[in-house]
C-alpha cells in the first residue's frame, strides 16, 4: 500500500511539473483580442505558458464581475487586472478603488496571484508633442484625456492590498512622449483612434509590460520567445 501511495504521489508530481503556467488577463478594450495589447502579450511566450484573455470591449469592473468568475474557474496562476478607461466615465476614483479591491480579494480567495496594472495611456498630445494629462480640446470636443488619477488610485490600492503593481500608465506615457505624436499614431487601431491598438501598437505595449512582469515573476523568463 505504501509503495502504491508513493507511486501516486510521484505521478502527481510529474503531472504538476508538466502543467503549463496560466496567466489570465481581465480588462477593457485596450487589453482585449480585437484592439488591445493582449494578443501581442500572449505571443511573447513560448510553450509552457497559457494566456487566457477575458478582457472585453467597453468593460468596467462592474460589467466583468461574472467573467472574472469564469476566468478563476480555469485556475490560473496569475491574473493581470487593467481597468480605468470606461470606469472613469461612470464613477469616481474612490468607487474605482473599492471595486478594484473587491477584484483583488476574489482573486486571492481563489488562491491565485493578482497583478494590478494602471491603464495604458490615451494617445492625446498637446502642442509640445507631449501626452495630455488633463483637459484636452479639439475643434469639436473638450474632454478629460487623462487617466492619471485612476492610475494613481490603482497604485495606491495595490500598495494597500500588498499586491504587485505595474504602472503601465506611467511607462506608456514615457514611451509615447519619447517617440512623439507621428510615430505614436502609427499604433492607432484605425485612423483617428488614439486609444486602441493595431498589431504594431499592441506589440509595442506588450514589450513595455513583459519586462515588468518578468521582474515580478522571474520563472516566466525561461518561457519568453
Outline the structure in words.
This protein is of the alpha/beta class and 225 residues long. Helix content is 44%, strand content 14%. The protein has seven helices and seven strands, in the order H-E-H-E-H-E-H-E-E-E-H-E-H-H. The chain has helices spanning 2-18, 38-43, 65-73, 93-109, 148-161, 168-184, 199-216, and strands at residues 21-27, 49-53, 78-82, 113-117, 135-137, 142-144, 164-166. The strands form two sheets. A five-stranded parallel beta sheet has the order 2-1-3-4-7, sandwiched between helices. The protein has a two-stranded antiparallel ribbon with strand order 5-6. Strand 1, helix 2 and strand 2 form a beta-alpha-beta unit. The N and C termini lie far apart (44 Å). Residues 1-16 have low confidence and may be disordered.
Topology:
Layout: H1 2-18, E1 21-27, H2 38-43, E2 49-53, H3 65-73, E3 78-82, H4 93-109, E4 113-117, E5 135-137, E6 142-144, H5 148-161, E7 164-166, H6 168-184, H7 199-216
Parallel strand pairs: 1-2, 1-3, 3-4, 4-7
Antiparallel strand pairs: 5-6
Amino acid at each position: 500500500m505504501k509503495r502504491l501511495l508513493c507511486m501516486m504521489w510521484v505521478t502527481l508530481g510529474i503531472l504538476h511539473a508538466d502543467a503549463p503556467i496560466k496567466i489570465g488577463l481581465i480588462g477593457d478594450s485596450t487589453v482585449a483580442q480585437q484592439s488591445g495589447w493582449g494578443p501581442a502579450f500572449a505571443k511573447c511566450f513560448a510553450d509552457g505558458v497559457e494566456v487566457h484573455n477575458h478582457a472585453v470591449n467597453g468593460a468596467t469592473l462592474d460589467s466583468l464581475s461574472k467573467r472574472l468568475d469564469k476566468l478563476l474557474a480555469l485556475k490560473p496562476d496569475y491574473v493581470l487586472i487593467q481597468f480605468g478607461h470606461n470606469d472613469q466615465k461612470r464613477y469616481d476614483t474612490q468607487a474605482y478603488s473599492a471595486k478594484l479591491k473587491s477584484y483583488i480579494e476574489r482573486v486571492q480567495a481563489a488562491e491565485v496571484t493578482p497583478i494590478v496594472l494602471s491603464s495604458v495611456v490615451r494617445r492625446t498630445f498637446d502642442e509640445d508633442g507631449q501626452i495630455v494629462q488633463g483637459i484636452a480640446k479639439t475643434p469639436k470636443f473638450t474632454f478629460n484625456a487623462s487617466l492619471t488619477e485612476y492610475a494613481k488610485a490603482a497604485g495606491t490600492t495595490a500598495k494597500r492590498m500588498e499586491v504587485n503593481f505595474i504602472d503601465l500608465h506611467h511607462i506608456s506615457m514615457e514611451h509615447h512622449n519619447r517617440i512623439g505624436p507621428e510615430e505614436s499614431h502609427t499604433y492607432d487601431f484605425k485612423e483617428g483612434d488614439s486609444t486602441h491598438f493595431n498589431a504594431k501598437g499592441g506589440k509595442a505595449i506588450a514589450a513595455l509590460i513583459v519586462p515588468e512582469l518578468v521582474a515580478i515573476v522571474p520563472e516566466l523568463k525561461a518561457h519568453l520567445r
